[in-house]
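hiii so um. not sure if this is the right channel but i have a protein structure encoded as tokens and i wanna go backwards to a sequence. like what aa goes where. can anyone help
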């Protein structure tokens, strides 16, 4: 069955269950002690990686919809964005709990002295209002334009998240570069389409004036 004919409820259910697989994987690994010599690091980094995965998947929804014409994809964006916040919360919680044992003094020093934690915390703080306003009531309360302006901060969140990952890894930059390249393409497509739209709007605005200014050439 072509994707465009798949019922929305069925598609959302499938995506929801698939989105829980990383949590299931790490939960199973922790229960059966299969996460390696440092399970705390495996869980913390794993949830961080999946946060970035879901962030990029969420950002990919609009370009995929434009390129494929599958408008159905837009119905998944909110849920994918909320899963981004879900895994970001798990990533942060595992750091606060398992790594720092909620020692707020040490945590504050970490945020101030370690740049990768600084940008990671900044990304999470920016992500909170997006998750809090991911419902129709918030759109009505804020108004469409203000809501869109708020949710465009996801682009800055993406940049901060890639920086967080890059500064964390330090040695092998192959994966951070891959994530950075994907983010560059996703943001670049948006910038290109916005410029094309701006030029089309300008052309539509000034076309009547040009018709009045430029004389119509006689036919030969």
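sure thing!! here u go:
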């Amino acid at each position: 069955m072509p994707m465009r004919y798949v019922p929305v409820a069925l598609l959302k259910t499938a995506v929801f269950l698939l989105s829980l697989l990383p949590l299931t994987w790490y939960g199973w690994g922790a229960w059966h002690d299969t996460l390696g010599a440092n399970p705390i690091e495996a869980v913390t980094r794993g949830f961080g990686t999946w946060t970035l995965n879901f962030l990029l998947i969420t950002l990919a929804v609009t370009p995929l919809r434009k390129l494929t014409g599958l408008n159905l994809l837009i119905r998944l964006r909110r849920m994918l964005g909320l899963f981004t916040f879900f895994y970001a919360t798990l990533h942060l919680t595992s750091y606060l709990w398992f790594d720092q044992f909620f020692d707020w003094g040490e945590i504050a020093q970490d945020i101030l002295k370690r740049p990768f934690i600084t940008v990671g915390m900044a990304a999470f703080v920016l992500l909170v209002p997006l998750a809090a306003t991911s419902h129709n009531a918030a759109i009505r309360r804020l108004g469409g334009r203000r809501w869109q302006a708020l949710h465009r901060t996801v682009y800055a969140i993406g940049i901060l998240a890639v920086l967080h990952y890059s500064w964390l890894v330090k040695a092998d930059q192959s994966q951070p570069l891959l994530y950075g390249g994907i983010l560059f393409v996703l943001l670049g497509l948006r910038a290109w389409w916005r410029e094309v739209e701006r030029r089309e709007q300008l052309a539509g605005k000034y076309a009547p004036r040009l018709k009045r200014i430029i004389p119509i050439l006689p036919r030969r």
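oh and The first helix runs from residue 8 to 19.
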